[in-house]
Amino acid sequence: MTDNVTAEPADGERAQAIAQRIVDNVETVIVGHSDTIEQIVTAVLAGGNVLLDDVPGVGKTMLARSLARSVDGSFRRVQFTPDLLPGDITGVNVFNQKAREFEFQSGPIFANVVLADEINRAPPKTQSALLEAMEEHQVTVDGETHPVPAPFTVIATQNSVAADQTYSLPVAEIDRFMKRLQLGYPGATEEAELLDRIVGGHPIESLSPVATVAEIRSAQDVVADVRVEPSIREYVTAIAEYTREHARLGVSPRGSIALVRAAQARATLAGRSYVRPSDVQSEARVTLAHRIRPTAETDSQSSVIERALDSVQV
Amino acid sequence: MNDSTRQQWLRLALAATGLSVLGSAYLRVLYTAVDIDGDPQLFFVLVAGAVITGVIAGRFVPLSGAIVGGAIITALGSLLYVSTIPPEYSLTLTISGLWGDTTALLTGMSILRIINAGMWAVAVAPIPTFLLAYFATRRQFGYSTLIGCGTVAFVILTGDISGTDALIGVLGGVFTLGIEGLERRKARLMQTDRVLVVLTLVLVVTASISIVPGGSAPLGAGGSTGPGETVEASLTRSDDELSVGGSIKLSPTVRFTVESDRQSYWRIGAYDRYTGDGWVRTADTHDPDDELTGPKSGGSTFTQTISPRDTLSVMPAAWRPTSVTGALADATSFGGLRPEGRLQPGDNYTVESVAPRYSPRELQNASGSYPNDLQDRYTQLPDSTPDDVSRYTEQLTANAETPYDSARVISSHLKKNWNYSLSVREPEGQVASTFLFDRDAGYCTHFATTMVTMLRSQGIPARLAVGYAPGQRVGQNKWVVRGLDAHAWVEVYFQGVGWVRFDPTPSEPRQQAEQSAIDAAREDDAANVDVSGSAPNETDTPTPTPTSEPTASTATTEPDQSTATPSSGTTPDTGSSPAYRPEAFANASADVSGGDGESSIELPTASTIVFGITIAGGLLAVLRRWGVFRGLRRLIWLWSLSRSDPATDVEAVYDRLEYLLTREHRPRDPGETRREYVRDVGTREDRRLVAIYEQVIYAGDRSESLVSEAIELFKRRRRALVGGNSFRYS
Known about the structure:
Radius of gyration of chain B: 35 Å
Low-confidence stretches of chain A: 1-7
Radius of gyration of chain A: 20 Å
Oligomer: heterodimer
CATH architecture of the largest domain in chain A: 3-Layer(aba) Sandwich
Strand content of chain A: 15-25%
Mean pLDDT of chain A: 86
Shape of chain A: globular
Number of helices of chain B: 25
Number of strands of chain A: 11
CATH class of the largest domain in chain B: Alpha Beta
Distance between the termini of chain B: 35 Å
Helix content of chain B: 40-55%
Largest sheet of chain A: 5 strands, parallel
CATH architecture of the largest domain in chain B: Roll
Number of helices of chain A: 12
Strand order of the largest sheet of chain A: 3-6-9-1-10
CATH superfamily of the largest domain in chain A: P-loop containing nucleotide triphosphate hydrolases
Largest interface: A-B, 18 and 13 residues
Largest sheet of chain B: 6 strands, antiparallel
């Protein structure tokens, strides 16, 4: 135990430092959303995918790009349109005249960070092309399976206005996003600061990577090792059960898993090697709300979660 | 079986228990009637049948069907009742008659007074029982309780149910309702304590307020005596029921004076139905006795003038009165008189009576066969009368050839072998068998009741008569009658002769008891002990007591109004009279208070035990509601910290700290983490304790030093928060 005790804090501190570096880096570009930035960084550390859901122009894409730029890894962006085909995402097998055989031309999904912009503009068939990659970290084309690089994170954005020209995400797909985040408008001072920063040149152009892919991977390992005591697991389960009892569609077991892993990442970011109930609470809203279908039309997803957090005994 | 199913079954069982208690409350009353005059076997079969039918119907038959079923049972019951009613009472079968009967019952006429009480009870019992079982099976306990309590209310109105029984029945109903309420509100059975609290309240309130519904206050001839205290009060109420009780007193107050041509017993009335522990007059019907006619055998007419010296609600007269002048009077059944309203001092009235004339020979020759109706009515005995009495009488009268012989033998046997005493325990069970086999003393009611029972067991029609003994003779034809002259005796029917009086009570001891009561009263200068001429210094002979026990040879038996010789024909039974507890309810109160008999150690009765258990349960429930137990448990819990493994210890320490903080500030919200909570309400020490908690519980650091530190922190906090404060619990 003594070895581990000395080794773990070292790993944990390093992981915390990596995460903190990324957060700080992104914050140089994105103003006034430090919560959301932490959420998105912890999602990456927990190996999850993120759905950014908000009105246009609040910096969704900018946030995703900043994150991608902060990591010394590959970054691809796919603009979803109504005529986008699944093959445009995953890649296709192309016949090589010279070698006289089919060879796989990988699509934009093979990258460490994939930005799926305006994902709800594409038809469900195309959306579902993301599914396998998001869940299993691999892509199958014509029976051949190709692993995506690790770490792998899909950051999708969708507009919540002009919904008549969109395809809403299937329940199965939306469940595969670890978190749904909303940015919201910046405050008055933050907006002034934002305008100040872009005078001269956009700060994202000068953004440089602060973490390597290998560092991200090791940080992910640290996150996976964060201690989750039975009482914490019971707490998570109780919250999930509450939503199942009080909503038409409650939180799936996948949702519970996502919550635990997000809480682990949150603990790492705080420099701890164990999860506290507060970690669960601060991750519950973003990891669970989008999975819920409230019973009444007038009920909102987030209010179900709020009630669950208020009434489930810690 | 999971927890909720078990709770369901338990609830059902508890509700069924409550309903059984409720049901048995009224069934017991009805059974009493059946036992006295009916067919117990038929009763049990029908009641059991009603329960089974009700349960089956509850499972399969909708409400409308059950109503039809109830109607059919009612109709069948009515038919059964109607078919067995004696023909001469068929008048009562008219609608108005039925209405009248019902009204009479609801206004306090005892069920036992119905001519055909046993059959009536057999016919009625299945109706509520069926409906009760029906609704219980459908889990509509509210309706079940309504029906059960309605029936109990009915027997309360008729005055047939004892206070204890009624109370127990109603408690059963309340209990059932409570259980149903818990079920409706999906409460756990642990909340039964609420029901228990209510039950206890009901019990305590009813026990402390002693007005029992249906219990009629005795309207004694002398309004001055307390209920059930004197012989007279028990015997001479203008009431239709009489119960035989324990110790009694003698009231020396003068009630009335009589000027008469001849000495006589001043009779008030008679009772025909024996209930085992008392007497009931069956309802007035068209009894030939109702008319003021002279005896069939003819007799000599004489007049008495009676001057009340006190308020009288009865109208004593010599047997058998033919006309009354000076006061308005009704003839009652059994050849008695009843005043309209009460007689006040000065309301003198004159009665003309015809003393029946008969000789011992006539009585000796009277045949042993009687009209059926008369035989049925006056040889009735409760089914539960022990056979012992019959066997004993049979042996005693083995040599008696005629009813007259039997009556004489029985009378003298009782007179010779039993002592007279006013202070005796109330007979348990049947009066006659208790008196015959367990007692060696009693007073007139015991003697008379026993003799009637013995005669009836041999098929000889007999009844209990009540009234006043002749009293103190103060002049040639003047008598002073006091409260203590109240008396009970026996009337035996002889075919062709009519009712003939026998008095089985030993007269001398009774007169001594009476005299000493008078003397004591005189010494105390009590008011109204004497009228002019009755005080010892005014008259030579206080009480001439003719003690003749006429035998066949002397030609006058103890005949009621002996024709030939007044002096020998009357046995002045001065009023050493029996005291009765006035009501069935008296039994109930006696049970609770432990009885008023001379003895001694008695095992608590069933009802005492039920009372005790209920009250104890209620007390526990009250304590529980007040949180006394929880508070005590909390206290012990707060001050005891047993060590086991670090995680458990730290949990335990934190729980206690949170309890203290809850008392001091506020409880922790469900969604509030411990860290947030102590940050809000706790001190630096509390925050440190929670940090340790997180370290141990969430980070898995199980080092002893942390646990010790937590315990130290907690002890410091406990001293600060509890310290010298008095304990509060929540």
